[in-house]
Amino acid sequence: MDLQKILNEIYKEIKPQLGKGKVADYIPELAKADPKAFAMSIVTLDGESYHIGMHETRFSIQSISKVYTFTMALKMYSKKLYERVGVEPSGTPFNSLVQLEYEHGKPRNPFINAGALVVTDSLIYHYKDEFITLENILNFLRASSDVSDININPSVAKSEMEHGYRNRALANLIKDFGNLYNDPMKVVETYFKHCAIEMSSQELARSILFLANGGVDPLTNRAFLTPTQTKRINAVMLTCGHYDASGEFAFHVGLPGKSGVGGGIIAVVPGKMGICVWSPPLNAYGNSYAGTLALELFTNKTGLSIF
Amino acid sequence: MDLQKILNEIYKEIKPQLGKGKVADYIPELAKADPKAFAMSIVTLDGESYHIGMHETRFSIQSISKVYTFTMALKMYSKKLYERVGVEPSGTPFNSLVQLEYEHGKPRNPFINAGALVVTDSLIYHYKDEFITLENILNFLRASSDVSDININPSVAKSEMEHGYRNRALANLIKDFGNLYNDPMKVVETYFKHCAIEMSSQELARSILFLANGGVDPLTNRAFLTPTQTKRINAVMLTCGHYDASGEFAFHVGLPGKSGVGGGIIAVVPGKMGICVWSPPLNAYGNSYAGTLALELFTNKTGLSIF
Amino acid sequence: MDLQKILNEIYKEIKPQLGKGKVADYIPELAKADPKAFAMSIVTLDGESYHIGMHETRFSIQSISKVYTFTMALKMYSKKLYERVGVEPSGTPFNSLVQLEYEHGKPRNPFINAGALVVTDSLIYHYKDEFITLENILNFLRASSDVSDININPSVAKSEMEHGYRNRALANLIKDFGNLYNDPMKVVETYFKHCAIEMSSQELARSILFLANGGVDPLTNRAFLTPTQTKRINAVMLTCGHYDASGEFAFHVGLPGKSGVGGGIIAVVPGKMGICVWSPPLNAYGNSYAGTLALELFTNKTGLSIF
Amino acid sequence: MDLQKILNEIYKEIKPQLGKGKVADYIPELAKADPKAFAMSIVTLDGESYHIGMHETRFSIQSISKVYTFTMALKMYSKKLYERVGVEPSGTPFNSLVQLEYEHGKPRNPFINAGALVVTDSLIYHYKDEFITLENILNFLRASSDVSDININPSVAKSEMEHGYRNRALANLIKDFGNLYNDPMKVVETYFKHCAIEMSSQELARSILFLANGGVDPLTNRAFLTPTQTKRINAVMLTCGHYDASGEFAFHVGLPGKSGVGGGIIAVVPGKMGICVWSPPLNAYGNSYAGTLALELFTNKTGLSIF
């Protein structure tokens, strides 16, 4: 399979779609993104990499960061983590508050905001300090992407803090149920900060090789997770990775993946490769419009969909 | 891969688990099932079949029937079906009523009861009569399993009718929103009847070969669906096939599948085979306890999980 | 206080408002009502009566009937009734299903539809037959109004049956929770029938004298309820009598009252009189537009508001 | 009517009940209250006052303060206030979050916490500063009670701040919907502070004379509200003043009233008097156990219930 050729074809087919959709504008920092920007990167288990577009340009990874914090928490707490956060799909966003109330503050999965807040809280609880927690999250991303200068964009984090009232409502409600161990404001702030990490498509594709390889980075042989834990993360990505369009993504793309409102999407082909695509304008469900299409083209062309 | 040998191993390992869990007893007819009953069948695309246990004993397929009615409706209405029923996971059972209310009577997916009722209604609307509808559902199952005498157990259907108040509540609520075209009681009755169809594990495994083969029965070459529609059904089975344990099933088994409270589970290995397992006692989520374990053993032993 | 003079003043002031609002049209039978029709009747504890408008014209009493069925059930079951239905306000209509689910099938009060269905069920359970139940409801109204020929309009009842899907959904959901003892369809049908009773404003005003007199009809000395039970009914009317506008009604009118979508409203001045007003067009909350205004004029002119 | 004699009788009858129920212990400061403490005060429109028990002992007025902030906001904004907060009962506490979500951040009434937060926000918006707002709330209470040294207990306020996660969740959710104009944390802090005001039963009974007199303090002739606004506040107290037991309170007591978790309850007899009762242990609904009983005895003995 000539992956570069396939990427080139995708690039050609996707170009007329660039600019369609709507760049996230709930904070000014994200609204500045170039609606025509596009990148797609593939890194295979043997370390070969293939790219199209602006694959070296960093963007705000946003909710993609939840995959890494979930990975870290699963490594720390193993199955005990599931006492605080579930692994099932959650239905509509409307349900998030209803479900938290009905299920006594236990979020349905680590990829809805409520769940990601609990995961972040579990990391702060472990590291005992939010700055050390952030440093460890960054170090995890630096290690898994094998790039040393990955950092947070402080103006994005600040901008989130100024608008993130719903996340604060969630954090305080979870705290009221006793399922946050730290101050809710600190948890929200740490959460916003790890969402404000910036990486390029090639760095992200590289960083998820361990998820395509049973938990072990195939290039450094560093073991991040057990094979069973890795399977768990991929399963949760498949069933819950795209908010209220997870079913659509499973159908169209058919790969475990996770999107962010910065326009990035990562996807894992188990046993084979990590993929990242980036295009800022989002579809109605808050996932990258062109990015979703590009991944659909990819699995159609390669037959690598799980279905 | 020696599938018979793998089945034999599974049988040996699963035997100590038989009887664990709880046979569905909300209707007397289901409560009569033998808690130690067990069967597992595999049919490959080339027509080879492998079995262990009581593979010729018929049982109540219950919600497994939703896969076939969804197939029929998708063939009839294609994408227009999604105007009436979604393809996304639904969260907790509690949400079913809240979501119907909040989303104006459009169920989240065809595998929750509300969605299956809309699908059944769409079939009755097409065939213009509920008896003709049932005959066509039976004929579909007869054709896809290549067995001519598949039938409904009338006492199971009657028993469901006598206890199915929640389904009637759902049907009447959907009707109130204008998303049922027929009398709600007729729809519920037709739904209970197709849930009361009885088949054996070997018949069910055989009947889903078309889902493992892009919509075409590989043994008769009969085309039931397009490849894209088939992908859709498999994707919905993976994300929504096991109620509130769909995420767990995706993790443990990693195959598109659908369970029924009669203790049956079907699973599709795309491009390879259809599988059916049967054991009446259910786990806490209403899925066959031993059946889920057997499928997990299967994907662990064969590496056929999608993750 | 010259009550006839006050009624005449109200009549004059209310005339320009007649026709404003919207006649209930969810069933054809109610849609036929004359939007300019108006009547107001007062009957005092000493038997004096005062009227304006079409006070002898009968109209569909609809939800006003819930006051009488609640009275009958409270007499039968006393405090035990509260095990099946509460006495607290319910919030939005949207909540009815959510609350039933969250509170396990126990409706919040006897004046929301769910609660009235439970009350009707309790009457059928007592009388062991729905026809005998209806006959007893009619007899109660005949006795309390001292009029022998009060009856059900069968075409209104039939029309309700053909459209009442939401009430059927409620009844089946309550049944699923075990809080209906009879067949939900029979309960719904009996409920629709007692809602389809027709009475005039003078008959209704007369029939509630016992609620203004501690449970005893002051003209016949017949005791329908104890003083405590009477206080309960008046309290529930004040806090829950007007759906989602109970707070508004308490403010504007300040009397225990109950409205129906037929355009009727009854109101009790404890220790003094029964009042009924009728005007078919409804305001946004489903209560008679001109009727609410007329009652507000009445309490403003007489100072008989409880506040 | 010899009010002192009636109070004396009540005192005798209520004594065996003192200590029953449960003192609020969600914050340590409130848990310290003497469970046997009791006081009851009546002040009539002509300035006569009657007391039993510890009527000069100050206690934490808690949610009783919502009556005064609602009064201040209604005076400031008149009907425009209803654009931000409703006047209808709200159903279960569970609904508070569901309703806020469903009704886009507009609380149902000013006496549930969500509504009181919006009212407090409206005061801060008016005074442009939270300290000036608090000073004005205190001044309002000093004026209406005619006592100059009413103050906040800072350790109660601090204790609330350390535990009030649910109120912070509510405030942030309302802010997310755009219905708070100030920083949610400031609003919550100001709210907790006015809840921590301490007054005695005789001060509270005196301070609500204006609500029994059409908005005008009968002793100073100071007009706080119009008669219509006063009627509104009394109506909202009657339908929404006791959380999920407002219906029970309307039945048992039959007076507009408002309770606080400090064990105080105020009640208004329109045209006649203000009443305050205090006893720290609460019933299952969070209202003073002995206080509710004492008020019921009062209306039974005097016939002053509105029903």
Could you outline the blueprint of secondary structure elements for this entry?
The structure is a homotetramer of 307-residue chains.
Chain A: H1 3-14, H2 28-31, E1 39-44, E2 49-53, E3 59-60, H3 65-77, H4 95-102, H5 113-127, H6 130-145, E4 151-152, H7 154-163, H8 165-176, H9 184-195, E5 197-199, H10 201-207, H11 209-212, H12 227-240, H13 246-252, E6 257-259, E7 264-269, E8 273-278, H14 289-302
Helix pairs in contact in A: 1-14, 3-5, 3-12, 5-8, 5-9, 6-9, 6-10, 7-9, 8-9
Annotation, overall tally of beta strands of chain A: 8
Query: Mean pLDDT score of chain A, rounded?
Result: 94
The secondary structure category of chain A is alpha+beta
Q: Largest contact between protein chains?
A: A-B, 37 and 37 residues
**Low-confidence region ranges of chain A:** none
User: What's the tally of helices of chain A?
Assistant: 14
Share of helical residues of chain A: 40-55%
Multimerization status: homotetramer
- The termini of chain A sit apart by 19 Å
What's the main sheet of chain A like?
5 strands, antiparallel
